[in-house]
Design a protein that fits this description.
- It is built from five helices and two strands, in the order αααββαα.
- By secondary structure, it is mainly alpha-helical.
- The chain has a single domain, classed as Winged helix-like DNA-binding domain superfamily/Winged helix DNA-binding domain (Arc Repressor Mutant, subunit A, Orthogonal Bundle), CATH 1.10.10.10.
- The protein has a two-stranded antiparallel ribbon with strand order 1-2.
Length: 134
Amino acid sequence: MGSSRGQQFRARQLLGFSILYLAAIIEQGSLVKAAKHLAISQPALSKSMDRLESELGIKLLERGPMGITPTTFGEILYSHARFSRRNIWNTAESCKQRCPSCSKSLEGATFPHFATSSGKSSGGAPSGASSGRV
C-alpha cells in the first residue's frame, strides 16, 4: 500500500471514530461528559472535533454556556452516526448467533462510544449494553 493510500485509509478510519465521538458529544451535551463517557481525555476529544470540522469545512457544533448543540450539518452527521452504531451492534449480534464459539470473544469486547447516554446502545441494544458492551 502506497503512502497516499495509507493516509487515505487512516483519514477514513479517523473520520469514522470522529463521527461516533460526535454522537456521544451531542448525546451527553458537553465535551467533558462525552470524554468521560468515551474514556478519553477532553483535549483529545476536542482536537478530534476540531479536526473533523476542519476536514469537512463546516461547523458541526455550537459551543455555548448552556452546553453544546449540533448545527444543521451536525444533526445530519449525527443521524449517520446513530445508523453506523446500530449496524456495528447488529453485526456483532449476528456474529454471536452464527458462531457460538466466537460469542465468548465478542462478549469481552467493549466499545464505550457505542453506548448512548440513555443506557441503551443505539439500535435497541439491551440495557446491559449501557457500558458499550457488544
